[in-house]
Amino acid sequence: MPEKSCFFDSTAEDPREYTADEFAEYFRRVLTDGIFNGGTNLQVTADGTNMNVNIADGYAWIQGYMYKVYGGHTLTLDTADPTYDCIDRVVLRLDKSLEKRSIEAVVLKGTPSATPTPPALTRNDNVYELSLAQVRVIAGKSFIEGFQVTDERLDTNVCGLVNSLIQADTTEIFNQFQAWYNSKTAEFQREWEDWFANVQNSGFETPSGAQQKANQAEANAKAYTDSAPEPMQRNLSIFNVYKSGKDSNGIFTIVEYKRADGTLFARSELSSGTSPQYTTRTITYYDTDGTTVLKTDTFILTYDADGELISEVKQ
User: Fold this and answer.
1) Cys-Cys link to 221, which of 4, 51, 177, 199 (CB 3.0-4.6 A)?
2) CA 53 to chain centre
């Protein structure tokens, strides 16, 4: 039969019987293996007086089957090797064989060695193990102390916390957003460069016209901002303007545009030539951290015989 469904009530004419593994399979579709909640749940400890380790109360979930410790549980490790250390593991072992059909806490015995390693976990169709802790058994020592126990409950490779397998695949949504974001970033960058050039061109003038041009620049900037598309207006509203590097002719050679959080978005700097006829303007754009450079644009400025700026060409 290529189809299967469960679980349904039985009737006298149509009995519905299910195995324990079918019931466990139901939960394997929605929950991962591991322990519940963390904290001290099934934590392995040692009191430092003998070769015993203690497992705290708690719950675990293995391949759809539940395990519970109540009232504490104690395991005893083998006597230490007289020469070499070894690493044992305290594990929860699910055994679905007919002889067992249970989950039990057991000690996996390690091999004494000059460089000991923990024993491997068994994971097959019948036996599946989760490791709660490693215990380093020190050569010749007759008791286990707390520092010899390494908690492995949160290591997802060998145990981990029970979690949901029901998750939405957001990959396609993210890809669509990323494409939209990249498109809008390029669009805003172009609009920003146009606005930036419009605002600053009139600031690179002779001293006699500096104030007049500055006033005009303000008016131009406002007019441009007011008439810009709504997304661009929102983009401009986040920037604060800071000027510095004022020269002898009253021209600010550095203008910085910062976001609301104080991080630098762009920096314009005039250089080369002689004030007020600077011949180079460099604009550097920064990432959201305000320090990582995204790109740098360089513009060559030229003037007519009267010292008026007549062109600004991107290199």
Assistant:
1) 199
2) 36
Q: Is 79 exposed, middle or buried (0-12, 13-18, 19+ CB in 10 A)?
A: exposed
CB 141 within 8 A of CB 80: yes
User: What is the C-alpha separation between 16 and 7, in angstroms, rounded?
Assistant: 8
Q: How does DSSP assign 238-290, residue by residue? A: T-EEEEEEE-TTS-EEEEEEE-TTS-EEEEEEEEEEETTEEEEEEEEEE-TTS
Residue 172 CB partners (closer than 8 Å, separation 6+):
none
Comparison of pLDDT for 231 and 99, the residue scoring more: 99
Cα–Cα distance between 289 and 167 in angstroms, integer? Answer: 32
Please indicate, yes or no, whether residues 225 and 270 belong to a single structural domain of this protein.
yes
Q: What is the pLDDT of residues 156-178, one digit of tens each?
A: 899 998 887 666 565 676 677 77
The confidence band for 223, taking pLDDT boundaries of 50, 70 and 90, is very low
CA distance 2 to 74: 47
pLDDT-derived band at 108 (thresholds 50, 70, 90) equals very high
d(CA 52, CA 88): 12
Please give the average per-residue pLDDT across 51-78, as a whole number.
Answer: 93
Please provide residue 34's backbone torsions phi and psi, each rounded to the nearest 5 degrees: 145, -170
179 and 309 in a single domain? The answer is yes
Q: Does a structural domain hold residue 34?
A: yes
pLDDT for 211 = 53
Domain carrying residue 258: 171-314
